[in-house]
Design brief:
202 residues, alpha+beta, 4 helices
Length: 202
């Protein structure tokens, strides 16, 4: 089975609707990856829009600066629940979960030009911890509020910018939370909608 087919199969196994940019976005779309629980249940996934993001400074500086992409992360909303084997409790998924996945996703495509390979792992660990703390404090000063359409309905999102790009997260009416991250595309003009045809992303 090809990697592309495995990606499609992963998205098809989800029991919740996927979200992407709405029809106002006319550029290329692609499936990225899904995240699963230990029992194989699909819990979240990401869909790419625009350029395929490269690790920033590896793309040759100027080229990376011109990248225009937005990645939309869909997270199944769920309450605190027992783990599949009955031995523990799984945390609830919330808008903070979407913010965390989006924040760490942006970092995965970032490599500050002043770092060498040996330091990037340390930098990434430190920044990822910071992203987690920020996602856990959506009411904090790092975030502002932004209203964007979800299935045509104005919806409040938590939004923050950094030197690496922007991150946002908010709810939907479809039993999922949406996060997004990007560079080179303004978050202010985006809209989200449920994906009716995965074929547009293959």
């Amino acid at each position: 089975m090809s990697a592309a087919q495995r990606a499609v199969d992963g998205f098809l196994r989800a029991s919740f609707p996927w979200y992407g940019l709405d029809e106002a976005f006319t550029g290329p779309r692609r499936l990225m990856q899904v995240g699963t629980a230990a029992d194989g249940t699909v819990q979240h996934g990401a869909m790419g829009h625009g350029d395929e993001p490269s690790i920033r400074s590896e793309a040759g500086g100027a080229g990376a600066e011109k990248e225009r992409f937005a990645v939309v992360v869909t997270v199944a909303a769920s309450p605190v629940r027992r783990s599949g084997d009955g031995t523990g409790v799984l945390d609830a998924t919330t808008v903070s979960s979407a913010a965390w996945l989006a924040g760490s996703g942006l970092l995965a495509h970032t490599w500050p030009a002043q770092l060498d390979h040996s330091l990037r792992d340390d930098w990434l660990e430190q920044q990822t911890e910071t992203a987690f703390e920020l996602a856990d404090d959506l009411a904090g000063p790092a975030w502002s509020m932004l209203s964007l359409p979800v299935d045509g309905v104005p919806t409040p999102f938590h939004y923050r910018e950094s030197e690496f790009g922007w991150v946002l997260a908010g709810p939907t009416g479809g039993g999922v939370h949406v996060g997004a991250y990007g560079r080179g595309m303004s978050a202010y003009g985006l809209g989200f909608s449920a994906v009716k045809d995965l074929g547009a992303y293959v």
